[in-house]
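Hi again,

Forgot to attach this to my earlier email, sorry! This is the prediction with zinc ion bound. I've pasted everything inline since the attachment limit keeps bouncing my files.
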Amino acid sequence: MQNQSPKAVTRVAKRVCFSQESPEVKNESEASSSEGPEGFIRDQEYWFVDGNLILVAQNTAFRLYMGLLLAQSSVLRQKFSSAHLSLHEGTVTRTVHLPEPPHEWRYLLRRLLPKGTGTHQTTFSLRDDFPMISALLRLSQKYNITEVTAYAIDALKAIYCNSYDAWRIHDRAVCGEGFDLGETPGILARAIVAINFARLYNIPSVLPTAFYHCACLGGAIMKGYTHQDGTPEYLASDDVARCINGIQVLTAVSADHVQLLRSHLPAYRTCKYNGACRRLWKQQVRDKLTRDWHSVLGNHAFRGLCETFPALSALCDVCKEKAEDIFEERRKKVWHDLPRMFDIATYVGKWPVNVK
Ligand SMILES: [Zn+2]
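Structure tokens for the complex follow:
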């Protein structure tokens, strides 16, 4: 692993003490659980009435089949061997208390004890699937469940990918037109967790795009990422330094791009609207960039023309295509340079892998 901080790895590996859940998580727990007479809440999704193992995660209990779990984890096998035995509704059961929040165990159980359909997911979204992937990576590492670790690593690689076209889709969902300014920093900060896992599991292909999103955070990189249970996670200091240096390079690329946009004007001769596009361009682009180029572009280098300047969707087809070319040129340049920007080119190896 390249310049990996042992502290960062330890932080990921040992992040197992959870004290409270966010309101969002509480609602999920309450929605799928019911109060039992045992002093804990019975999980509605994983409570098999003839199960012989009661796994209590904080205040929520899952009733499960012990043999199915033991077959998949040597760590759980060891833990369960000394578990307390009791008679529960006529069945001899073992009861084990574990510190992780119930929603994380629910994610894991859906992999270990699948019910019905929906367990063979092959496409993943940064916005919707990251909490599941993060929980699977953490728990599968702690309990030594290698099949789940492999699945979660593939999912992480599918989001922080080395495919230019796929990354455009993931990035657009966070930084594209109409993105939620309040929600976006939290989603961008997921890249902090991705980088720490990439260091822990030695997954270099995850790093270029993850570092890019960290750079988009700007100074907020220092605030780290707050997990659903309120636990913070930070980058190692070496990786924070890479982000700061990368921001400088991205800003320089943005400045070049702004110059191109300011000097570009749609041609009168080829314009389908007889040159009306030039007036729109001057008004929407040149004036706006002159006043406030940084807030218009920031470091969101993968955005397109109409994502950056929505009013330019009114350009004629010819002018729009030429203007889009400027954005595509910038995106490709940034994509090619990502590993070098963040000083990880040697570690990442061949890049780009599938773009001309
Ligand atoms: Zn035109």
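Residues 58 and 99 are 6 Å apart (CA to CA). The chain has a mean pLDDT of 84.

That should be everything now.

G.
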